[in-house]
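Go through the following before class.
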Amino acid sequence: MTRAIYFSATGSTEEIVRDISGRFSLTYTLLNLTAPLPEGLCIENPDDLVVIGVPVYAGRVPAPAVASLRKISGRRQNCVLICVYGNRAFDDALLELHDIAVTQGFRPVGAAAIVARHSIFSKVAATRPDRDDFRVMDDLVTLVRDRLAGHGKLNAESLPGRFPYKAAGAVPLHPRGSRRKCSKCGVCVDECPVGAIDKATPWVTDDKKCITCARCISLCRKEARSFGGLLYKIAGWQFEKKNRERRPSMVF
């Protein structure tokens, strides 16, 4: 059986993990880390193939995803590691995900960094993943199947990044809500992975808790939440200019 485990605030990582998991098996189970997990979850079947996918936040695995992954233990199951990044860089994220997987009892047999549309500055990599990215996913599946047949293994030293990992940086941009548009349906309150939105005032964001994942924006049916303001416009212009060049999806 293939098990797909993912943290996906805006849906891009989930789609990529589903696509890759479906190439290994027509049927697979899903474990969504975007919502908090109970303690002590163990994947017992040693024959399962586990696909673990996370987005890259400032070059690292998102802190809530790390916390959830630390609650999952394996039994030396083979696993495939996926980091999804928004055309800037994935820095230490793939190496960090590898180290977490090994610590939790999994055996990485393949890894990939896949480019998708940036979750904050949506003009960056707006049409990705595209045909070339899907070819990279094909290469990943072929490579993993070859390794599972006994022809080599993932070499952790081939993964970019270094330990100690880069300091986890905070993004000084946070979604804002429109009181006029907000219907107080509570979706953003329930789905925020860090509890940064209060039910009584769902148009307000607790900046100290917010990790700028944009989940509230992607789920709001009233389009009552968005990034905005002068700082966002300036940062967006600078980011788009700096990251205009196409970065590659990569397999390891």
Notes: The beta strands are 2-6, 28-32, 41-42, 49-55, 72-73, 78-85, 107-115, 176-177, 225-226, 250-251. DSSP finds seven helices and ten strands in the chain. The longest helix spans residues 131-148. The chain has a mean pLDDT of 96.
